[in-house]
Design goal:
Elements (H helix, E strand, L loop, with lengths): L6 H25 L3 E3 L9 H17 L7 H25 L2 E3 L4 H31 L2
Antiparallel strand pairs: 1-2
Helix pairs in contact: 1-2, 1-4, 3-4
């Protein structure tokens, strides 16, 4: 994979994504039980997704994001990834790795574009902070 992101950009955006995902899971999974991994409650196996899959997807998504392209390309990119995420979620539910308990694929389809945009926005903030920190010296 060609590296379009610096190490600090990867670290900051992945750390943000994992923190956001953990906070969302606390409320939607553990408190409201709308979905979960394997069975209700916490499982060590869920760390595979939290530590393995989410950081990789975040890095790949942001690395190939068409920063210098037209808005239509950016929106298309976000919607293609959102479609992939819904298909991945469907496969995870069918395999028993993930379960729905009130959450539907429609809710997911509406949330994924927002979540991907939040990742892009986070990367913009990180890049701005990096630029500002280099100017202060």
């Amino acid at each position: 994979m060609p590296k379009e992101l610096t190490r600090i950009e990867i670290f900051a955006t992945v750390f943000f994504a994992m923190t956001l995902q953990d906070n969302v899971d606390i409320y939607l999974d553990l408190k409201l039980d709308l979905y979960g991994y394997f069975t209700k409650g916490t499982q060590w196996e869920a760390l595979i997704a939290i530590i393995g899959i989410y950081p990789a997807i975040t890095t790949i998504f942001l690395n190939y994001y068409p920063v210098h392209r037209k808005v239509i390309h950016k929106l298309g990119y976000i919607f293609v990834w959102s479609g992939f995420a819904v298909l991945y979620e469907y496969a995870a539910v069918k395999s028993g790795y993930f379960y729905h308990n009130g959450l539907t694929y429609w809710y997911s389809a509406l949330c994924y574009p927002i979540l991907f945009y939040i990742l892009i926005f986070t990367l913009k903030i990180v890049r701005k902070l990096i630029r500002q920190s280099t100017k202060s010296f």
